[in-house]
Design brief:
Elements: H1 2-8, H2 14-20, H3 22-26, H4 32-40, H5 49-65, H6 70-94, H7 99-102, H8 120-146, H9 150-180, H10 185-218, H11 224-247
Helix pairs in contact: 5-6, 5-8, 6-8, 6-9, 6-10, 9-10, 10-11
């Protein structure tokens, strides 16, 4: 029945979606070592990380099924995919950096907001495992019911790569500011103010483009050529502004 519904572009039920993902829900697609670690990691609720993911992913399937049309279900699946891939991008960019540098990315997100910052790095690793599982399963589900092709996968990869570019600029400049605290606090505050005035407006504009890309990808309306032109224009602006920022970084004695 799901195959017929796909061919006719009819919406699927929650039961349809759970049947299509049953194998992954039973045996999540993780390397053996990561699977064993996730299965043995028990939270305060008494659930393992894998069981927590199963519950969360089941709710995502229900969100997809709640859309009334095939197109709406496809769009919601893509929105969920991009949101989960975003956590993979944050982890890849922040995993080797101290939490004060990237904490602003998660400070208002539950459960980060409810726990001390010294535990954020471990929590980010857990979010990464959960996101990695959801990305793999949503991509497989999209291939089954929405026939994601190479063009769609290129769009998704472009979104991820651009997000990582934004994160790289943000976290590298934050690292420079953070490294100065304790050595030259006054200089650190001045450099932090310069980042707020010079770099952060660019980052805000880049995020607007990233959000536009996500909306267009979900609704199959993206114009790759136009997006690439905007990215190239931002790159020119970024080189100019980073030059201004670096010119004001105090030289080591």
């Amino acid at each position: 029945m799901p195959i017929l519904k796909r061919l006719l572009k009819r919406p699927l039920t929650s039961a349809d979606l759970h049947r299509l993902t049953r194998q992954n829900l039973m045996k999540p697609p993780l390397p053996k070592e990561m699977y064993e670690a996730a299965a043995g990691l028990i939270g305060k609720s008494g659930l393992s990380l894998l069981d927590y993911w199963r519950k969360a992913f089941s709710m995502q399937l229900d969100e997809i099924a709640a859309q009334k049309t095939w197109q709406g279900q496809r769009a919601r699946l893509l929105e969920l995919f991009l949101a989960e891939q975003g956590w993979c991008d944050i982890f890849a960019s922040a995993k080797d950096i101290e939490a004060p540098v990237w904490g602003h990315l998660v400070a208002e997100v539950e459960p980060f907001a409810a726990i001390p910052k010294e535990h954020w790095k471990g929590l980010l690793s857990q979010k990464y495992i959960i996101a990695l599982l959801s990305v793999a399963c949503l991509e497989e589900l999209g291939a089954k019911i929405h026939a994601f092709n190479s063009a769609k996968k290129l769009e998704l990869r472009l979104h991820s790569e651009y997000y990582r570019e934004i994160l790289e600029l943000d976290l590298q400049t934050n690292t420079m500011v953070h490294q100065m605290f304790g050595h030259d606090d006054e200089g650190a505050f001045e450099l932090g103010g310069l980042k707020d005035d010079v770099i952060n407006p660019l980052i805000a504009d880049q995020y607007k483009l990233l959000d536009l890309m996500a909306e267009q990808i979900a609704n199959s309306q993206i114009d790759i050529v136009s997006v690439k032109e905007k990215i190239d224009a931002f790159d020119v602006r970024k080189r100019e502004l980073v030059g201004v920022f670096l010119a004001n970084v105090p030289k080591s004695p």
